[in-house]
Hints:
- By secondary structure, this protein is of the alpha/beta class.
- It has eight helices and twelve strands.
- The protein has a ten-stranded mixed β-sheet with strand order 5-4-2-3-7-8-9-10-11-12. Strands 1-6 form a two-stranded antiparallel ribbon.
Amino acid sequence: MIAPDPPDDILATEVFSAIQGEAALVGFRQVFVRLTGCNIRCAYCDQPEALDKRPGPCRIEQTPGRRDWAVVDSPLPIASLASKVDALWRQLAHHSISLTGGEPLMQSARVVELARQLAAGGREVMLETNGTLVSALAATLPWLRYVSMDVKLPSVDGEHVVPETQWKFLDTALESGVTTWVKLVIGATVDLQEFDRAITMVSELADRRCPSVPGTLPGADLRPDVFLQPVTPFGTVEAAPTPQQVLDLQARALRRYPSVRVVPQTHKAIGQL
C-alpha cells in the first residue's frame, strides 16, 4: 500500500516568541504556535479566537518579543509556518517550541507533519493539550519532547470530559517515555471527589508506567509532576480560589501523590501574551 501524501496546510492563529508562564517550563523562552480548533469549551478559556476550526487571519511575529506582527491568511502551508517559526528561533536562544491552541490535536495529521518539520535539527517540541484525543497523540508522540496535559475538572471548567479518556491519554503519553506532566486548573468551587479522582489517576498510572527509583527525591525520576493552577478569572469565571483553598488542595493532593506543585499563570502576572 502506498502511504498517503502528508497534508500541506494547517489552520493557525498566531506565531510568536514569549516566556512560558505555566507548569514545568515556566520562565523559559519558547516559540509559540497557536493552532485553531478545540473540541471542548472551558468556562475560563482565555483564547476564544482559537476555538473554532475555520479559516481566518494568522499573525506572525517578525522579531522575538517585539510584537511586530505580519498578518497572513490561514490555513497556510505547513512548510511556510515551519519557516516562520525557524525565523524566530534563529534570532534568539529559545528553549523549545510550544504547540498550543485551541487544541492542537484537532488537526491530527497536520500537527504530525508540523511537529516533524519543527523537530528537524534537534529542536524540542512541546504539546499543550486538553488530554482527550488519544489516537492523535499516539501519532504525534515520535516528534515530541514534552507533553503538558490538562486533566479537566467539570466543577471548574463546566465541561464533562470522560475520565477514562484522560486515563488512556496519560497512559499513552507515559508509555512512550516522552517527558509528561499534568496540569489541573483549580477554582473556587472544586468538587473534591473529582479532584481526588484526578490525583489518584496520576498516582496509579505513575506507579504502572514510571516506578520510583529508590533513593531519589520526588520529581527526580520519570513520574509526572502535577501542577495545580489557580484559575485566572476570565469569561464566566469570576473568582479564583482563596489562598487557603490552594494550600488545602495541595495538601490533599500530597496525601495521594508526592510531587504536586502550585504554579499560577505567571505570564499573566508580568503582562505577557
